[in-house]
Write a structure and sequence with these properties.
The chain has helices at 12-19, 26-39, 57-65, 120-133, 148-162, 176-186, 202-208; strands at residues 46-51, 69-75, 90-92, 105-111, 134-143, 190-194, 213-219. It is α/β, with parallel strands linked by helices.
Amino acid sequence: MLADRPAWLPTDRELAAYYGHVAAYPYYRLQLTQYIARLLPAEGPCQLIDVGAGDGSLGGVFQRWRPATRVLGVETFLRQRKWRFDAIPLVQFDGARLPFPDASFDCALLSNVLHHVGGTAAQLAVLREVRRVTRRRIIVKDHRARHALDRAKLAFLDVAGNRRFGASTAGDYQSDRQWKEILDALDPRAVERYGALSFRNGWLERIFGNELEIVFALDF
């Protein structure tokens, strides 16, 4: 079960004002933010690496409002300045080797990233590299595809969500069985899976549902 919404997280109204024009669908962005916030350590200092940080806005929430938090974003593709925040430092990397020593960060975040890096083997390789630089917890937000229709819906959503930024719109979406294979190979000490979460409402929920979304907390 997810922890309660942390007291340090501002209201949805404040978050919506912070995200501004980069949030094409604010409900999704606000739900994502509060779910990730609830998976971060409840208190104490936290060094967080945001892998595939995009515009840097999500990591910026945690650096700005969570006490004693430092966030570093890494990206293979740096967006144009008009689509980026200056909330956290962003470092470009080659998608294979993170330029940091072992165990450099308390936690790592991969939000809607892994499906862009290739098939099962490539996604596992990225997770292993993230594991190398992470001491405690890896938070993964991604997608699950049960059949061809799910993959078609996810492909459409990727184009709608990423094309305007010039970011990748290609995706390899894993089934529940494939996710289990990836996580078994990574061998975390504990895995929490969250699949009954609300990311869409209204007509978007009726068309796309929420079954396409999955969140994992991996402890080591």
